[in-house]
Automatic annotation (TrEMBL):
It comes from Terriglobus albidus. Its EC number is 2.7.7.27. InterPro entries: ADP-Glc_PPase, ADP_Glu_pyroP_CS, GlgC_bac, GlmU/GlgC-like_hexapep, NTP_transferase_dom, Nucleotide-diphossugar_trans, Trimer_LpxA-like_sf. Pathway: Glycan biosynthesis; glycogen biosynthesis. It is an enzyme of class 2 (transferase). The keyword Ligase does not apply. Keywords: ATP-binding, Carbohydrate metabolism, Glycogen biosynthesis, Glycogen metabolism, Nucleotide-binding, Nucleotidyltransferase, Transferase. It comes from the Bacteria. This is Glucose-1-phosphate adenylyltransferase. Pfam families: Hexapep_GlmU (PF24894), NTP_transferase (PF00483). The record marks Q58, W97 as: Could play a key role in the communication between the regulatory and the substrate sites. One of its GO terms (biological process) is glycogen biosynthetic process. Homotetramer. Belongs to the bacterial/plant glucose-1-phosphate adenylyltransferase family.
Amino acid sequence: MKDTLGVLLAGGAGERLFPLTRDRAKPAVPFGGQYRIIDITLSNCINSDLRKVYILTQYKSLSLNRHIREGWGPVVANELGEFIEILPPMQRVSVNWYMGTADAVYQNIYSIGSEQPKYVIILSGDHIYKMNYQLMLDQHIQSGAHVTLATLPIKPEEVPRFGVVDVARNGEINGFLEKPKETKLRSPFNPERVDASMGIYIFNTDVLLPELIKDAEDPNSKHDFGHNILPNLLGRFKMMAYNFVDENKQEALYWRDVGTLEAYYEANLDLASVSPIFNLYDKSWPMRTRSYQYPPAKFVFGEPGRTGMAINSVISGGSIISGAVVRNSVLSHDVRVNSYADVDSSIIFSHVNIGRHSRIRHAIIDRDVHIPDGAVIGYDPAEDKRNYFVTPSGLTVVTRDYSVYENPVSQNFIQPGQPGK
């Protein structure tokens, strides 16, 4: 790993996670109470001993930049040449913003070249999984490959959502299919599955950089690794597949693209279950994040009908459950749930105040929202649509000012800055 540079793509707009990505980058969206989505990939890097990482940001990156600077800068030793560094679009070799995954890396070609790495590993900052990149690099070197792709076995009916990889029995890659409606391809490692690309690539640097330059000069290119760079390498360089080895140590492989609100919601609520599929408590593969100086969570009042308690829930520091009930939910830092309130199957971001007698279920409440006394959210989809953002599946998302801008005459909107009770 000392000869390897990590390039983490974290610049996507995240339209499918709107309105959570209205004011923040997708990798900066909270996950599991105290984490951000990007923390999962960065934890994989540190656990894999990959300690030279460039993070390529673009859209609405203020909170992401601050999180990386304050939470991840102290993790690496700068005096040993280690770094986790943010690279925004600098227009050093182009007048455009990043036009694709390959273009994002190309625009930082001088920064990559200045480190003189022997290998470059391309990563994405918006997936949930545990993976030891060192094992993938070991295979890459031992096989003599110029490029290695991480692949994941998926069910044949899932192929419209993935880039499909045609893998030979010796692990060499013969072709690609980009999100086909169906395919007869099957994995040589599991005949009931199809090999899909995880968006994780290891390149020999002397192969990657010339290909990026060639792609940048092609006016017809989409400047994307999956669409252009990798297919153009077929037949010219040795390209191998690396079958995903899951460090989550569960019976089923765990890899989640939390790019939609429903997928994001389900991945979070899994963490609150009695036996979550994704284990945050594995000491052999720790998940790191920025440390916040909040006091411990507190639960107060034990009167009949007014008991502060949380059941099958994740409660972060600084939160107070004051005579209220929280079930099957994930609460971030500094959340106050006041007396007689009921929160069920919901994700509550930091600095939220939930008023007395409120009822909330199947909802995501964004940060800094103050829920007034007696508010009812998640019980009447028609009413929720008048005030908040509701997905086709019925998941309600409440942001600080969504209802104010969308429906200012509503009688039941949540006002920014309204004091909690």
